[in-house]
Design brief:
Strand content of chain A: under 5%
Number of strands of chain A: 0
Distance between the termini of chain A: 43 Å
Number of helices of chain A: 4
Largest interface: A-B, 41 and 41 residues
Structural class of chain A: mainly alpha
Oligomer: homodimer
Radius of gyration of chain A: 14 Å
Number of domains of chain A: 1
CATH architecture of chain A: Up-down Bundle
Order of helices and strands of chain A: HHHH
Chain lengths: 83, 83
Amino acid sequence: MSSFAVGILAGTLCTISFIPQIVKIFKTRQAKDLSLITFSVFASGVFFWFIYGIMIKEFPVILANGITLVLVAIVIAAKLKFG
Amino acid sequence: MSSFAVGILAGTLCTISFIPQIVKIFKTRQAKDLSLITFSVFASGVFFWFIYGIMIKEFPVILANGITLVLVAIVIAAKLKFG
């Protein structure tokens, strides 16, 4: 397996991983056990990966982190809504 | 700000972000709102970033993802313990 393929697999897994958390919050309408600080700091980190992707002009980095940022923002919004 | 510095900032934020979640679970002894699938899939993604780092021989990628993997594994263990 090439390092490129491993990188694509790693990025895809990290990005899609947040979907079950979103589904769980909206199903149970509860999010109190989630750390708002964790998801906020993580989102800021992903934001800087997104900026990094723009700076080094790497479209896969921009795309993966752009999608992750949207998904994590949904988790944060749901956390703020359901507490 | 150089792309290198932005990358270091991004990686550091994403790695340390899991510490407040660990603290929160151990303080409240509750983790039922956390999605086990999310943290498991995310951990597998981080594991492949770790392997990717070894393949491309980039020590910062190995280090950041190695630490993140340990922190996320603690979140998963705490989730399994406190439910």
